[in-house]
Amino acid sequence: MRTLSWVYLGAIFTFILLPVVVLVIFSFQDGRLPVPPFKGATLKWYAKILGDRDLMDALVNSMMVAILSSLVAVTLGFLAASGLARAALPGSALMRGLLIAPMTVSYLIIGLGLLQMFNQVGIRPSLLATGIGHVVINLPLCFAILYAAIGEHQKSALQAARDLGAREWQVLWHVAAPMLAPSLAAAFFLSFTFSWDEFIIAFLLTRFDVTLPVEIWSMLRSGLSPATNAVGSLVFLVSVAVVVTLELTLFRKGSK
């Protein structure tokens, strides 16, 4: 039975990681197409993408949008979760439902709705519009993570701080935020990841300054190339580095 469990676990990881392994291997393909057979290793595709100004600009744009939109989404989600967890207010269940509702809506519908709304208020397609869109889709996730992390002992500690005379901002900053640090980090990282990889909203709400997924889509329109594999490998490497860093620092401290 244990052997069967290990086989099953190995099959799951193979299914998940095999596409990534293939992506990385053929990013070193010494040929014009990232398809078998493997013709030898080369770093020319990495040199090509690192020297591509449009691609590097899109990389910076994606990083900026992902970081700023994640910070806003986590902040708003933290404030909403703290407020709704503080007391059972009339209609609190409805408010929680409304906050989580965007998670059930297609990104295409959200993007089209935001595009029409921005046209009405005079906001042109831009990185700002994309950042707002990413806050809309990531705020429900951040709220759900943080609200679920606030248990009875957190509520008791927050109430004790208020009883001792702390102001609300002091309770949130000095008590709630440190107690929820692992959950805040998890919410931020997931929000960052979703913003980093998101294409539909970024495609609809950008025009000249585009994000990395939109730029990769433009590259794919001219056909397959090991250069696109190289871009994907670098993105994967950055994601793994962030996960490992968080695991070795904040999450490990939180578990202790």
Automatic annotation (TrEMBL):
Residues 59-246 form the ABC transmembrane type-1 domain. Keywords: Cell membrane, Membrane, Transmembrane, Transmembrane helix, Transport. The chain crosses the membrane at residues 6-28, 58-81, 93-115, 127-151, 171-192, 230-251. Belongs to the binding-protein-dependent transport system permease family. CysTW subfamily. It comes from Thioclava pacifica DSM 10166. GO terms for biological process: transmembrane transport. It is found in: Cell membrane. Its main location: membrane. This is ABC transporter permease. GO terms for cellular component: plasma membrane. It comes from the Bacteria. It holds the Pfam family BPD_transp_1. It is a multi-pass membrane protein.
